[in-house]
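sry for the spam today, last one i promise. struct tokens for design, 160 residues
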């Protein structure tokens, strides 16, 4: 870059004062300052754009790497799922149609097949099992109350 020292700037200022005159020198200096500011802003915008494009290229490279890693993981998981499915199918095919294995047991155990029964949990029973004193302490409402009844309950005395 061009190196301007104090002596060179003083020489340029003196020549400009002689050539332009004291009346037009401030206006020209202001115009030169505006042009230099615009040039600096333009250079900084170009630098920012170059940095953004470099970051974009890096992000695209990282995206490609992540996509390849995801596809590798997906294929390995798919292979494991297929092998597990095949082993399950082979085990299932070893069982006969009536549900007994070739050795006469059911799924490797003897006895009847257990049937699933829903636990029949009832939330009303559980709430009913809570003592009344505990509900009062915790502020649980025990009775349904209409909006008008709630208003009347909390209305100050003396008002109808």
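last one done:
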């Amino acid at each position: 870059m061009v190196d301007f020292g104090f002596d060179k700037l003083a020489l340029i200022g003196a020549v400009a004062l002689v050539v332009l005159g004291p009346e037009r020198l401030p206006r020209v200096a202001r115009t030169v300052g505006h042009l230099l500011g615009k040039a600096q802003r333009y250079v900084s915008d170009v630098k920012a754009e170059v940095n953004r494009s470099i970051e974009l290229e890096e992000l695209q490279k990282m995206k490609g790497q992540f996509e390849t890693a995801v596809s590798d993981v997906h294929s390995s998981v798919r292979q494991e799922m297929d092998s597990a499915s095949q082993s399950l199918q082979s085990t299932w095919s070893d069982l006969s149609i009536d549900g007994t294995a070739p050795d006469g047991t059911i799924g490797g155990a003897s006895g009847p097949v257990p049937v699933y029964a829903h636990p029949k949990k009832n939330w009303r029973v559980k709430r009913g099992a809570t003592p009344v004193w505990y509900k009062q302490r915790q502020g649980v409402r025990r009775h349904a109350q209409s909006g008008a009844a709630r208003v009347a309950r909390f209305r100050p005395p003396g008002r109808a």
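The chain has a mean pLDDT of 82. ok im logging off now
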